[in-house]
Design a protein that fits this description.
single chain; about 250 residues; alpha+beta; two-stranded antiparallel sheet; 10 helices; 11 strands; elongated
Amino acid sequence: MRRQYRPAGFSIPDDKGNWTGFDVDFCRAVAAAIFDDPKKAKFVALEASERFKELQSRKVDILSRNSTWSMSRETSYDLYFPAVAYYDGEGFMIPRARKIDSALDLNDSKVCVQSETTTQLNLADYFRANNIKYQEMKFAKLDEVFKAYESGKCDTLTADVSQLYALRLNLGKPGDHIILPDVISKEPLAPVVRQRDDDWMMIVKWTLYAMINAEELGITSKNIDEALKSKKPDVMRLVEPKAPMARSLG
């Protein structure tokens, strides 16, 4: 069995190509909103270096993965980030044997990082601002970053904190590694669509908000039949098929 290094909580295929995870569920929700069938979502794996270009070229219609919302990405690539799905932040994982408890003590570290990401930019900014010397070891794929850390090519791994916790579980002895408390950035992760398609952007945005509202109201696929009978205004606005919100999106 081939070992998986991806953070399974967000998106990962099994040996049969079946995808699961937070981002996967969102794409299925969009398919359900449009086609009344979550199985209509088709998943295409993309590396960080190609994700925005492939969205521009229409290889995919929506990008749902750990993509940080930034102004430069919207303006440089003609993209929209409709709404934040998950707030993350960049952190560091190191071997416990290093006996370091702060990122400010990472001087002269060899740091593995994924190239062409905000992670790489944040790393450089943080170390420069704090006069910390380091050796950058960059790799195009997250799998390669993690393998380099696991094999000892670097003594520090930087990534979003959510990724670090998930990746640590893949290590042979997770307890031999610690995630430092320092979070050096704010990463608002959001689905991404192309500009100049406002109808599509609205569907993506309000599908996400509908899922957030449903969670706040305690509405799930298991109790939706009961929710349809509810007389509570906020529940009725969310689930009633003839409600203005549903009609306005077509």
